[in-house]
Amino acid sequence: MASERTPNDALAQVIALTGMTNHALAQAVQRVGAENGDELQTNKSTVTHWVRYGVKPSGSAGRYLAEALSRRLGRTVTLGEIGLIEPTHDLLDWRTDTLSALADLGRTDTVDMDRRRALGTAAYSLAGLALPGSSWWDRMAEQGNRRRAGRAVVGRGDLDAVRDMAALFSTMDQRHGGGHARTAVVQYLVGEVSTYLNGTFTDDQVRRGMYSTASELAYLSGWMAFDNGDHPAAQKQFTVAVKLAAEADDAAMAAHVIRAMAHQANDLGHSRPALALAAASVDGKRYTEASPRERALLGVVHARALAATGQPKAATHALLHAENDLAAAREGDEEPSRVFFFQEASLAHETALALRDIGDLPGAEQHLQRSVRTRKATSFKRTHAVTLGHLGGIQARQHRIEEACATWAAALDAMDGVRSGRTRQAATDMRTALSPLRQRGIPQIADIDRRAAAYLAATA
Questions:
Q1: Spatial distance between the Cα atoms of 34 and 53, rounded to a whole number of angstroms
Q2: d(Cα 47, Cα 41) in Å, to the nearest integer?
């Protein structure tokens, strides 16, 4: 019986430090769960049972509980500190060996999202966004030079083949969304590419190139997970990508991943951590060693983070800087293939979102129109659909519903064949914006609502 259970005094003590009621804590845990795509039924009675009777939280609820407490106290609260069982290994630990973390990544990512939640292995962590200090980066670069080589001889041809595969997967992601082929990316990374990383390299340039390209693949698998709404998996994969880039001593590649982490944090509403990450991505040689096109990408995400934290002047300055960087990119420049997608349309899209966040709706609409006009829609279907979704939303906010419906119709056309959490969010936003107007009997509204609902059902 419940009364015979042992109270969880450790949890009670930590809750007392927060000053939260059981009801407030339950709500905080629900918010963390929702952020991770997990709709919990946690309430104050649930928390009471955890504390008074020592009932163990089911599934990932324990991790969500620790994360909620961490955010309240402003420090990391471990599972062990609140009387729960610690995991045997944590991919978010920067001390974990890179290749061991890569192997674990393969084991955890092959488990589907629902099962990871049931096993208690899924939680997006704000503590995991804190980057290690400068000594860690120096140590990782030295470690890359000292790694013992395996029997397989890895040469320039192997590196070229892996780069070609990374480019292929990236092109597929841009066209069809993160819901397609992510498992294939992870399997290729932890299988064939991992064998190369453990091999004997013909020279250090090949070694660094292989680690950088492995970082790009880990980043891509994380980006696909982020795009598909699997935020805990994305965070873990981004962490591994940073480690691989650090062992390659590739500051620009590390910046690319850190920028993605900032983008994810910002989208999830964590504007302050997002700004810290975005600022780190444009710091020192991470920015100076990047190509002009990549500098523009880093800069516009930094601008978005500044806008989200209520710094319009700084955001505007960063946007102008990013525009200048992209203008400096020239056809034929030597630049990494990972930035092939970032062109005028991408800059306009991100600029529009920053302007939206500082309240400039006309400016945001102008840049979204520019993005739609300049993008190669067939090559970048996912982003084109998302851009149209944002554009319709801006038009609706300015009370131009018929125009918004026409834009959303084009967005839904572009979503055909795309599986992406961001396109699903765009469809959800359409339905939310139209909800107060459904009873007016306007055919365009009914049509968009029906089509958006059908898309959500088909891609669930």
A1: 26
A2: 11
Token readout for 373 is 């006009």
For tokens 């934290």, name the residue. Answer: 309
| Nearest alpha carbon to residue 215 among 107, 308, 99 | 99
Q: What pairs with residue 200 in β-bridges? A: 153
Residues in Cβ contact with 312 at an 8 Å cutoff, skipping those fewer than 6 apart: 358
Supply angle C-alpha 338, 232, 130, rounded to 5.
75
Q: How many angstroms separate the CA atoms of 240 and 248, rounded?
A: 12
From the first residue on, what is the mean pLDDT of each consecutive set of 10 residues in the chain (460 residues)?
Answer: 71 94 94 82 94 89 88 79 72 76 71 48 79 91 71 91 94 78 89 89 94 96 91 92 96 98 94 96 97 97 97 97 95 87 95 96 98 92 95 96 96 92 94 90 92 93
Alpha-carbon torsion, ordered 90, 92, 94, 99, to 10 deg: 70
Q: In the chain, what is the straight-line distance between the N-terminal and C-terminal CA atoms, in Å?
A: 39
| Alpha-carbon gap, residue 327 to 21, rounded angstroms | 54
Its CATH class, for the domain covering 2-82, is: mainly alpha
The whole-number pLDDT of residue 444 equals 93
pLDDT value at residue 109: 62
Whole-number pLDDT of residue 1: 38
SS3 content of the chain, % helix, strand, coil (to 5): 70, 0, 30
CA of residue 122 relative to chain centroid, distance: 14
Quick one: 116 exposed, middle or buried, by C-beta within 10 A (0-12, 13-18, 19+)? buried
Q: What ranges do the domains of the chain cover? A: 2-82, 95-121+131-249, 376-460
DSSP state of 121: -
C-alpha 13/C-alpha 31 separation (Å) is 22
- Provide the token pair at 62: 């324990």
Segment holding 201, helix H or strand E: strand 200-201
CA atoms of 109 and 241, how far apart (whole Å): 14
